[in-house]
Amino acid sequence: MELKRLVLSDDHQKALLDFCLVEAIDWHFIPPRSPHFGGLWEAAVKTAKYHFYRAIGNSVLGFDELRTLLCLITAVINSRPLVSNSESPADLDVLTPAHFLNGGPPASFAEPDVTQLNFDRLDGWQRVSYLQQLFWSRWKEEYITSLQQRSKWRTAKPSLAVADLVLVKDENLPPMKWPLARVVELLPGRDGVSRVAVLKTSSGIIKRSVNKLCLLPLKDAVESQASNGGSMSGQAA
């Protein structure tokens, strides 16, 4: 709570704003619960969390051990190749995130393999090395196949309109418990296509990506029912 009060204090907000202005920092936020808006980095986060949980298992680490391990895991992820350094077939050098973060290629000291030792008999640094090497072994083999497929929305699709009634998808709730909301504003991207909506719910104002919303009423189904003079019972909503 003390940290939250500090972050929300007027003095801290002004200091943060002044720093961002001096450093020419412009923040861009993705909508809540819409990780596909940050496909590239969210894929890396997903992979890191998955293999981190598998590597650490039930191990109990101190704060310094955990912090050191996370730094080592970050270095592993930032060593992944992004693009070749040149178009020459003889040049096998690649650019990695570490090149842009550190100003040069990733560097690390050679460590002895401790993954064959009994984890319970290792000291603090060896425990961290054990978990880092375990993470590296699993991550390097499964990273490519675990990457999320990223695709662009290149074709125009029917969009929402202000005042439309929608259901807000929530993966943590069954569909019958999804909250209702009213569209109060649409936020277009640089291409003019609205992919984010501002919604008014019973609990307040929220933002969601369009693909997390179910438009109500189902206009196509209602028009089909009216034209056919039939019943919609038994059709999926």
Strand content: 5-15%
Low-confidence stretches: 219-226, 229-237
The gross shape turns out to be: extended
* Total DSSP helices: 7
Report the helical percentage: 25-40%
Mean pLDDT: 78
Nearest-angstrom radius of gyration? 25 Å
Total domains: 2
Order of helices and strands: HHHHEEHHEEEEEH
How far is the first residue's CA from the last residue's CA?
43 Å
Largest sheet: 5 strands, antiparallel
Q: Numbering strands along the chain, what is their spatial order in the largest sheet?
A: 6-5-4-3-7
Given helix and strand content, the structural type is alpha+beta
GO molecular function: nucleic acid binding
Pfam family, one: DUF5641
Protein name: DUF5641 domain-containing protein
Domain DUF5641: 125-216
Structure, described:
Helix 3 (39-56) packs across helix 6. Strand 5 (194-201) and strand 6 form a beta hairpin. The chain folds into two domains: 21-146, no CATH class; 165-227. It is extended. It contains seven helices and seven strands. The strands form two sheets. Strands 6-5-4-3-7 form a five-stranded antiparallel sheet, with no helix packed on it. The chain has 237 residues and is of the alpha+beta class. The longest helix has 23 residues, at 124-146.
What attributes does this structure have?
15% strand, 7 helices, 2 domains, disordered C terminus, DUF5641 domain-containing protein, RNaseH_sf, single chain, two-stranded antiparallel sheet, alpha+beta, extended, five-stranded antiparallel sheet, 237 residues, 7 strands
Give a brief rundown of this model.
This protein has seven helices and seven strands; from the N terminus they run ααααββααβββββα. By secondary structure, it is α+β, with helices and mostly antiparallel strands. The strands form two sheets. The protein has a five-stranded antiparallel beta sheet, with no helix packed on it.
